[in-house]
Amino acid sequence: MLIDASFGFEMETFEFLNICQVHGFPKIMGVLTHLDSFKNNKQLRKTKKRLKHRFWTEVYQGAKLFYLSGMVYGEYQKQEIRNLGRFISVMKFRPLVWQTSHPYVLADRMEDLTNPEEIRLNPKTDRKVSLYGYLRGAHLKNKSQVHLPGVGDFALSEVSFLPDPCPLPDKLKKRSLIEKEKTIYSPFSGVGGVVYDKDAVYIDLGPNYSLQEQQRAEDPSHELVQSLVSTNVTIDSKMSTSKVSLFTDSKPLGMEDVEKTEFEMPTEERVIDAESGRVRRKAVFKNVQNEESDEDDADEESDDDEEEEEEEVNDDDDNEDDNEVDDLLEDNDDLEDTAEYNGRRATKKLAAEEPKKPDTMEMPAFADSDDDLENSEEEEIQDSDGDPEDSEDESPDEEEEEMEDSDDEVVVRKPTAALDSGNCTGEDAISSDSDTDEEPPKDMDEGSEDLPEEDAVDEEDLLKEDEDYMEDNDASEDTVGALKWKEDLKKKAAETFLRHQQSVTNLRKLVYGTVVENEDNEEDDDNKEALGGLFHVSRPDKESKRAANALDCSKFAVDGPRDWEDDEVMGSIRDCFVTGQWEDDKDAEKLLKEDEELYGDFEDLETGEVHKGKPKSQEDESEEDDDEAEDDDDKDEDKVDPTEDEETRQRIEKKKKLKERFNMEYDDGDADATYFDDLKEEMQKQADLNRAEFEDQDDETRVQYEGFRPGMYLRMEIENVPCEFVTNFDPQYPLILGGLGNSEGNVGYIQLRIKKHRWHKRILKTRDPLICSLGWRRFQTVPLYYIEDHNGRHRLLKYTPEHMHCGATIWGPITPQGTGFLAVQSVSSTTADFRIAATGVVLDLDKSITVVKKLKLIGYPCKIFKNTAFVKGMFSSALEVAKFEGASLRTVSGIRGQIKKALRTPEGGFRATFEDKLLMSDIVFLRTWYPVTVPAFYNPVTSLLKPVGQKDSWTGMKTVGQLRHELGIKLKQPKDSLYKPIVRKEKRFNQLRIPRSLQKALPFRSKPKNMERKGKVTKDKLRPAVIREPHEKKIMALLDALGTVNKYKKEKAKQKHRQQRTEFKKQKEAEEEIKRKKRKEANKRRYSLLGQKEKTRKRSSLAGKSQN
Amino acid sequence: MASQGHCLRYEGCNFFRQRLVLATLSGRPVKILKIRVKDESPGIRDFEASFIRLMDKITNGSRIEINETGTSLYYQPGLLFGGTLDHDCSVQRSIGYYLESLICLAPFMKHPLRITLRGVTNDQIDPSVDTLKATAIPLLKKFGIDGEYFELKIVKRGMPPGGGGEIFFSCPVRKVLRPVQMTDPGKIKRIRGVAYSVRVSPQIGNRIVESARSILNNFLPDIYIYTDHLKGANSGKSPGFGLSLVAETTEGYVISAELASNPQGQGAAILPEDLGKNCAKLLLEEIYRGGCVDSINQSLTLLLMTLGQQDVSKVLLGPLSPYTIEFLRHLRSFFQIMFKIESKTFEERKGADKVLMTCVGVGFSNLSKTIK
């Protein structure tokens, strides 16, 4: 992961990390770049540290962060890159569950195989494409379901394997690769220049890599490459353009120059045409499109220009258009440019492929690139739909040229009928080779024979022969050529066929071979099985027809019962019983005897005990009976004294075994043998077995048993692909082919545990569409959020909780439980906010859902008895009531009750009992739950079908809110759900009146205390007010003042006194403390003295004793 | 959904159960055409209808379409649901017919299956419940399907034609299965069996045991055959008797054979002695075929191997029964699994040629099981 240190973490970084976390966390290494933009060293260090810690919190403590110090001359430093590469290569990957259980292919090539005629008739017809790539993850089975993210679900119509186009170097013990072996691999880049197809190998010459690297730094052409990057061309083309190697002293190449140079290439071809003078048939082009053979531009350019030769080995599919373009353009440009072009060409050598095909020719490296350049330039050409007419026009010329050029290599083009040579795909064989009986197996074998072997010689011979043949017949080349092709294979095929016959037993034929046809008939026509090709089968056997309606029973009837009382017959199964004879290595008696022979009186505590007394193992002991006697005779006869050699061998073995056991017991057996260890050991054993089981078989048979292994280079055909996939194909976007498990192609309800992402700003609303990423798939769906109540009920939520997990149910593809899940609200818009809306995990899959929402039914009492009331208005019929009999009710005032029985009138009314008497003003509630339905909306994200340049603008269904916003429709609230001020009439209660008789009976405490009102105070009882004289007033005022002063004084004195007291106390305490200390010390001294005295006393007394 | 997995088509009613079971496990719809078209009574029979009903009970979301004459059937499987169920099986076939398929499906349910089946427990056509109990259950244990609730109980016995038997089957749920290597069958160390009799003289059981022992004692002394005589409500509606024998090897594999009396009113009465002897001979025949699994459980074993992780499983079988062979073909069309079949010849006295079947599991995981 690249992080621009000068900028810091970006939102995308975190989004990426979150995506990783959801889908299983692979090991992540961060790489900090732009560190040179920091001028201040301290700041640099600070930034590094800050970023590191943030990275650690996000990934894990101690996650690796790599620092790239900066660019030198616009390039990273070589040593650093090398170190980085080394670090990446030694990273340990934790296997991700999803990846280990699903096969997947990152496609590096896509070819359109549709019949051009069909496209001509209907440009929108569904396409048939083939994809190439390395298989990873798990085993891939033919005919299995796959998902192409961004396109959709498909079934593989055919799978075959090809030899690895980019093999590892032979010798592994090297510090670094030699230049020749340095290859770079990236999807859609034309792997290593060699294109493998089912039936042929084509070489595209990659120029010397080191040369190019050196040049890139100093060469202005690098800029050219840079400029190219921004154009909308295939990576393929980019790669090849970037490989342009020029003389160092040449003038800088501009874009136009490049184009020109590239156009020259075909010119040269022409020249050579004349030399070789071969012609090719016209019709090929149409046919070619059906075929799987691949066109390739294998080229070579030797140092001397004059002997430069080229080969255009053909491609049938989309490249073809490009080639045509070449030709067109070439016509215009060739003459002027030839010289210049030749002059400029740098020496090119074959890279890793060379040793394999020493005599193949090289060709200007631009073979592909130019095409693509043009593609980018001329838009009308880009569209392959429009081309068929052109192609027809152009094909003759081009074909001719191609044919003439090639000396050694030819692309073998066969009619559709002959597309059978797929390595292991028998269905082809069946389909194509119905003409002859022997052929299917041969074809099969042939494919497997030469392709996996990568035997260049074979290949070439074949090709040559084919070529010759083609030279001979121009007109009928198509059909006859194909036949010839087959004929050529006959010998080899026969051999392999024989071999197969030997290795594969009749039984297999019985089970799989003979019935293939029959089954295929039963299944769809295109749904034929892979292996059938081995055995050509006569039409469905009558037996199976007859059996079709037979009794369905698993018992295996015995046809000819034997006479089991006969001794001979009995003898035939004698050894199946413990009383029978045992194998040498298991026969206890024999073992014992051997032991004795070898070790004399050796006694092993474990085995010895068992073997000592009895000749048989313990199990037998109990079963030993009269039978034993007769058997023993046999055994004695059978026992032969082992020869010397055998003895020593056995002794060694025995010793080994003992040693092993010893090791087991004493080394690690007792201490560490945990459950986990056992488990690990078991897994290891199983893995070994898995590896060993099919190791000795050739790939062709192997794929039948286990499917295609991870690591194989596969070619997969898919039918019924939307035409937009091909027409809007943009190699800048990775194309993944993810295999699906059984029934993972189905849709159903998925229950998820989900949590709104803590950084996502808004909570999510139920029934708002979300775009999910689940397994391989990305799709839009409508989730319902729910939460599980304590009683296990799934209650619908309107919105996701803010910080809590909740459940979600979606209608989507069946995906195994435990798979991670990620949701965004939109994939098209880029917002500043964090885009990941929610993350979660799949909990459960089902075909029905259990989410419910609350439903309150309301009724009104129509008649009230004591505790019983008749309630109306809740239901509309007696039937409905019957369903709810016994359900609990509640009123607004909190009185609980129960539904009893329906009433005749009013319709839907019922009798209910309550715990108290109702009021007519009460409202009766029935709380129930209503199941909700999840809309069956599953809309796969088909971003790869969008036109080039708009692939990231996929929008699915919009939310209601969005639509309202766009269309300007305001939500009309229902009137009663609007808030309005609540007006409440004040309730007036009547006075409480207690009857007099009751009042009398009440205890005094509870009696209403009706105090009589006080009467008016009479005048005579009123006291007169005092009115003072002025003098008296003065006196009073003075007295008042004096009193206040006195009070104040007293208070002050009191305060003072208190203060003094506290001070005194403190002083006293301090003194006390000192005294105590002194006393303590004195005591200490005294006691120590006493102790010493005591000691001395004791000692002296002891001493006295001893003296005594 | 773009591709609902292409529908498989078959003709004829044979291997009806296999097809439905495999369709359910693989999630692929299946169409069976021309069911007894040429027959006097065309269309599916009662027992098949009952089987379909059972499938409907144990699954959720299945779609089953049968045409008016009952000659064609479309089955789109749902998810296996399980739970506590009961089902009345048709008396045309024994419970074994239904149970065989249930055993295949039970480990992959959402909820552990606890099912009560009513009908015929023992008849002459299908493997009896006794045999399945003695063979299939230990077999499943080898694949890691085991637990407290794993049991098969015969509550009542019912013989044809009346039926009236009842069994209880419960099976725990597993997410994944263990790969197995069953290559060494071991040697037979003991023979067990059940001689059952209902609504007949209780002596019959003993007579069967005696006669069976007389044959088997030539090979092995450790033979114990239980007599199971049921009375009253537990004895079903029709009289009958039979014997189910099981041979157990030192490696813990079991081989079985069984024989039941003719149903009341059909065919001649069979002497219990003859039945005992014949059954013993059948067992010897089965032993002669050999392998780690007997012929009725071959397909079950192969299925469980197929549904394992992506690991190699091996099993040594006796000669493949026609049912198994067809099952292998079906496995291939449903799961794209092909077995490596090697024929093994043993030394003279070990019975018929054996077949070593090897396959790599499809990496099946129980999609129905809920995780918490």
Automatic annotation (TrEMBL), chain A:
Pfam families: AARP2CN, RIBIOP_C
Disordered: region residues: 283-478, 518-551, 588-652, 1049-1108
AARP2CN domain location: 80-166
Annotated GO biological process: endonucleolytic cleavage of tricistronic rRNA transcript (SSU-rRNA, 5.8S rRNA, LSU-rRNA); maturation of SSU-rRNA from tricistronic rRNA transcript (SSU-rRNA, 5.8S rRNA, LSU-rRNA)
InterPro entries per record: AARP2CN, Bms1/Tsr1, BMS1_TSR1_C, P-loop_NTPase
Biased composition annotated in UniProt, kind: Acidic residues: 291-339, 368-409, 446-477, 518-527, 594-607, 620-636
One Gene Ontology cellular component annotation held by this UniProt entry: 90S preribosome
Biased composition (Basic residues): 1049-1059, 1076-1087
GO molecular function: GTP binding; GTPase activity; U3 snoRNA binding
Basic and acidic residues composition-biased segments: 350-360, 608-619, 1060-1075
Every Ribosome biogenesis protein BMS1/TSR1 C-terminal domain range: 639-932
Protein name: Ribosome biogenesis protein BMS1 homolog
Species in which this protein is naturally found: Engystomops pustulosus (Tungara frog)
UniProtKB/TrEMBL annotation, chain B:
Record's keyword terms, sorted: Nucleus, Ribosome biogenesis
Cellular localization per UniProt: Nucleus, Nucleolus
One cellular component term from this protein's GO annotations in UniProt: nucleolus
Residue ranges constituting the RNA 3'-terminal phosphate cyclase domain according to the UniProt record: 9-341
InterPro entries: RNA3'-term_phos_cycl_insert, RNA3'_phos_cyclase_dom, RNA3'_phos_cyclase_dom_sf, RNA3'_term_phos_cyc, RNA3'_term_phos_cyc_type_2, RNA3'_term_phos_cycl-like_CS, RNA3'P_cycl/enolpyr_Trfase_a/b, RPTC_insert
UniProt domain RNA 3'-terminal phosphate cyclase insert: residue ranges: 183-287
GO BP, one annotated term: endonucleolytic cleavage of tricistronic rRNA transcript (SSU-rRNA, 5.8S rRNA, LSU-rRNA)
Organism superkingdom: Eukaryota
GO MF annotation list: RNA endonuclease activity
Subunit description: Part of the small subunit (SSU) processome, composed of more than 70 proteins and the RNA chaperone small nucleolar RNA (snoRNA) U3. Interacts with BMS1.
Cited function: As part of the small subunit (SSU) processome, it plays a role in 40S-ribosomal-subunit biogenesis in the early pre-rRNA processing steps at sites A0, A1 and A2 that are required for proper maturation of the 18S RNA. Activates BMS1 by promoting GDP/GTP exchange. Does not have cyclase activity.
Family: Belongs to the RNA 3'-terminal cyclase family. Type 2 subfamily.
Identification of the protein by name: RNA 3'-terminal phosphate cyclase-like protein
